[in-house]
Amino acid sequence: SGRVTVRTVLESKQQGRPLVMVTAYDYPFARLADAAGVDMILVGDSLGNVVLGYPTTVSVTLDDMVHHTRAVRRGVQRALLVADMPFLTFHLSVEEALRAAGRLVQEGGAEAVKLEGAGRVVEVVDRLTEAGIPVVGHLGLLPQRVHALGGYRVQGRDEEEARRLLDDAVALEQAGCFALVLEMVPRELAALVSRRLRIPTIGIGAGPDCDGQVLVLHDLLGLTQGRVPRFARRYAELGRLALEALQRYAADVRSRAFPTDEHSYHMAAGVAERLQG
Ligand code: KIV
Ligand code: NA
């Protein structure tokens, strides 16, 4: 099948085909995700926690995102490449947001950007789409608001919060988003939003009734250090495999079992003997 575009993402919903999205932060994993045939690859600002070792995503800079997006770009041929706009790059002014998104597209090679939240962000979405930059919205748990929220928990459980999220979702669709990520919201609310919108919803911890799903690559591959959220399924234990491989390597070097002659280069016949003279 051909390249994934904004148009084919929108068509997927009409055709009832679930969208597959996964994060990637570097060239080798971008190649693997693309080869696996995922529809959308997200250079998430989860980069901060997952790859750069920060406690939250608020430390991630625009330069970080551009740098990693460029690496991922080189590994992606078919999937649609989306890059997160990092903390505070779309709140100071519409102009600043346009400039930041422009860098992710122009320098990074992203085909779309993702922004957390609604409210004043809605106008930014409108201006980005007007400028020809496709936008993915993001509602529910907004990790860039971790300090305001005081932690990571399910959003939209009560009626008032749920109504606000539904209104925000409609506003983002009207402003021009072509897809909407829903993070850690009750299954029932995600189902309602998915029915209400024409654009596809992409859930993470939002239940099976979304139009697509996204997971953090390192969660699904078993590469995440420490606790993994309950909504993630681990499809492999690459962290354990990597640790075992490194332990065997260390043991082999210490016991002189590696390297062997197989891993060595040789001089032409007689040269070594003459050198020893
Ligand atoms: O940064 C990220 O990985 C994300 C996904 C969880 C949607 O925003
Ligand atoms: Na993110």
Write the layout of secondary structure elements.
Elements: H1 6-14, E1 19-23, H2 27-35, E2 40-43, H3 47-50, H4 62-73, E3 80-84, H5 94-106, E4 112-116, H6 121-130, E5 135-140, H7 146-149, H8 159-175, E6 179-183, H9 187-196, E7 201-204, E8 212-215, H10 217-220, H11 238-254, H12 271-276
Sodium ion (NA) binds at residues 44-46, 84.
Structure description:
This is 3-methyl-2-oxobutanoate hydroxymethyltransferase. This protein has helices at residues 6-14, 27-35, 47-50, 62-73, 94-106, 121-130, 146-149, 159-175, 187-196, 217-220, 238-254, 271-276, and strands at 19-23, 40-43, 80-84, 112-116, 135-140, 179-183, 201-204, 212-215. The chain starts with 5 loop residues before the first helix and ends with a helix. It has two domains: 6-236, Phosphoenolpyruvate-binding domains (TIM Barrel, Alpha-Beta Barrel), CATH 3.20.20.60; 241-276, no CATH class. With 277 residues, the protein is α/β, with parallel strands linked by helices. The mean pLDDT is 97. The chain has an eight-stranded parallel β-barrel with strand order 1-2-3-4-5-6-7-8, surrounded by seven helices. The protein is elongated, with a radius of gyration of 22 Å. The structure holds 3-methyl-2-oxobutanoic acid and sodium ion. Sodium ion binds next to loops.
